[in-house]
């Protein structure tokens, strides 16, 4: 017997984790090269960024475009499916801005434990 996942569980399986939402956020306006993403998302490791990008590409949230130049150039951008997440991202940004002080207080309390 198979269990049905809730829509939220399914969505979180695609965008969950420490880095995926940050990657999607940084691709919201334009394509970005790997090195630039690594700088923006420091302290992410190259291995972790590669893993997260591969998963996002596999899940059809981002596109990977390779340019046949020397040195090699690779850009990442949101797919139409990835772009469809932007209203959620805007809401998340609004919510996190509105409750920033409370969230920081909670984070400090959690570190103190």
3D structure, described in words:
- The protein is an alpha+beta fold and 113 residues long.
- It has a single domain (8-112), classed as Arc Repressor Mutant, subunit A, CATH 1.10.10.
- It is built from seven helices and three strands, in the order H-H-E-H-H-E-E-H-H-H.
- It has a three-stranded antiparallel sheet.
- The termini are far apart.
- The mean pLDDT is 94.
Attribute tags:
Arc Repressor Mutant, subunit A; three-stranded antiparallel beta sheet; 58% helix; 12% strand; globular
CATH-derived topology: Arc Repressor Mutant, subunit A
Q: Let me know the CATH homologous superfamily.
A: Winged helix-like DNA-binding domain superfamily/Winged helix DNA-binding domain
- The first-to-last residue Cα distance is 41 Å
Helix content: 55-70%
Helix tally equals: 7
Q: What does the average pLDDT come to?
A: 94
Secondary-structure topology with pairs:
Layout: H1 7-15, H2 20-26, E1 32-33, H3 34-40, H4 46-58, E2 62-67, E3 73-78, H5 80-83, H6 86-98, H7 100-112
Antiparallel strand pairs: 1-3, 2-3
Short description:
With 113 residues, the chain is an alpha+beta fold. It has seven helices and three strands.
């Amino acid at each position: 017997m198979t269990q049905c996942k809730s829509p939220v569980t399914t969505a979180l399986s695609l965008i969950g984790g420490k880095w995926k939402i940050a990657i999607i956020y940084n691709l919201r306006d334009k394509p970005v090269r790997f090195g630039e993403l690594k700088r923006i998302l420091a302290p992410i490791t190259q291995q972790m960024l590669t893993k997260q990008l591969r998963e996002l590409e596999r899940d059809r949230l981002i596109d990977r475009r390779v340019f046949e130049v020397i040195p090699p150039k690779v850009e990442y951008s949101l797919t139409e499916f990835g772009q469809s997440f932007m209203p959620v991202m805007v809401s998340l940004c609004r919510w996190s801005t509105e409750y920033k002080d409370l969230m920081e207080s909670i984070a400090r309390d959690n570190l103190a434990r």
